[in-house]
Design a protein that fits this description.
This protein is of the alpha/beta class. It has eleven helices and 18 strands. The strands form three sheets. Strands 1, 10, 13, 14, 15, 16, 17 and 18 form an eight-stranded mixed beta sheet that branches. Strands 8-7-6-5-4-3-2-9 form an eight-stranded parallel beta sheet. A two-stranded antiparallel sheet has the order 11-12. α1 (about 15-25) crosses α3 (about 45-50). The relative contact order is 0.15. Bound molecules: pyridoxal-5'-phosphate. Pyridoxal-5'-phosphate binds next to α9 and β9.
Length: about 350
């Protein structure tokens, strides 16, 4: 009889701790902040903040409520709120001493009218991403008081994963020009990708998410970072299949010859991408088990012809040390960020690995 049915998600806090150490060394003398938005890329903001604090004293979240959630585990840390804050967030911001990232002249003026003198906001400028940020041509509209009264001057790169991309130097030059207006204010330009571009890009503070969780993307990983998430799922049933039989909704796979398949207990309800249908693979003992047919809500079918001894209740690997979110992202046609974020929303049972 099977001992358990549900998938096993393991967050390797020890990997995150080691990754953080290596990233600090790489970015030094710049300080390394941990980006824990979206529940720390799905992995559990509370556990990750507990793991990194007090070594890490600067965190970035997207929303004020996320900052309030992690404040108890990082009592003295600077917690920046990337999306900025609305008037509904003021109470949360004051009670938890959260630092808003202001990204428009309107937001700056509004913040200064609130008279919250013990919190110095960050100012984000847009240097070419055209997402959030005050435009460089608008900076002269800030009053001297607004200009002095900030704790971080920041921007965000568009193409740091492509080291030769002209956008990198282009954005850095604009950042250099604009920073002149903000003497003595700490500077931050880079997230994960920018940090790997080298010391010209690290300034005073780097804001690291992806690399911390072991997402290394196209950049060769010479730091030895390790993936923070492994996922395993249980075989529910194994079935011999005759040539000509179809698999799953839509009958998108037809067996060309007799084969053996396993019905595995993980699906898009757990965060597995439907785009892995007929494209992805699971793993057992280093053997890849191709996903066959369409991924369902709670189950997925794979070819176990090469691993015929698998039995109901056995665990197979969905993500492991050698098939990482980066690898799965290539098969699924998305980014490793989205792989983690999606699994994060599917995680209902989590195992924390401290060793
Ligand atoms: C998400 C985000 C980061 C972290 O990016 P990674 O590529 O995951 O390191 C840093 N800064 C800003 C403004 C972000 O939105």
């Amino acid at each position: 009889m099977k001992t358990a049915i549900q998938p096993v998600f393991t967050v390797h806090l020890n990997h995150i701790r080691n990754n953080y150490k290596m990233l600090c060394a790489k970015a030094a003398p710049a300080r390394t902040a941990a980006v824990v938005k979206d529940n720390a890329y799905g992995l559990g903001a509370e556990h990750i903040v507990r793991t990194l604090y007090p070594t890490c004293r600067t965190f970035f979240v997207a929303y004020a409520w996320e900052g309030a959630q992690i404040r108890p585990f990082a009592p003295d840390a600077d917690i920046y709120v990337l999306q900025g804050i609305g008037s509904d967030d003021l109470k949360t911001v004051k009670e938890n001493h959260l630092i808003p990232v202001l990204s428009s002249l309107e937001d700056v003026a509004w913040w200064h009218n609130q008279g919250i003198s013990d919190i110095k906001p960050a100012l984000q400028i847009d240097t070419g991403l055209n997402r959030l940020g005050v435009r460089p041509t608008e900076l002269n509209q800030l009053t001297p008081e607004q200009r002095q009264n900030i704790s971080l001057f920041m921007s965000h790169l568009a193409c740091p994963d492509t080291p030769d991309h002209p956008m990198n130097a282009y954005q850095r030059n604009i950042f250099e020009e604009c920073r002149q207006l903000f003497p003595h204010v700490p500077l931050s330009l880079s997230a994960s990708g920018g940090t790997l571009l080298g010391s010209e890009y690290t300034y005073d503070l780097v804001r690291i998410g992806a690399l911390l969780y072991g997402i290394t993307r196209p950049t060769p990983d010479d730091l030895g970072l390790k993936s923070a998430l492994t996922v395993q799922a249980r075989v529910l049933q194994t079935v011999p299949l005759n040539a000509g039989e179809n698999i799953s909704y839509g009958a998108t796979f037809t067996a060309a010859h007799p084969m053996k398949i396993a019905i595995v207990s993980i699906g898009y309800g757990d965060g597995l991408f439907v785009s892995l249908s007929n494209k992805g693979r699971f793993w057992v003992d280093g053997k890849s088990l191709p996903i066959l047919g369409r991924v369902c809500m709670d189950s997925t079918i794979c070819d176990i012809t090469k691993a015929p001894d698998l039995r109901p209740g056995d665990l197979i690997d969905v993500l492991n040390d050698t098939y990482t979110p980066d690898d799965m992202a290539r098969d699924a046609g998305t980014s490793a960020y989205e792989i983690l974020s999606r699994f994060g929303k599917g995680i209902r049972f989590i195992r924390k690995e401290e060793k």
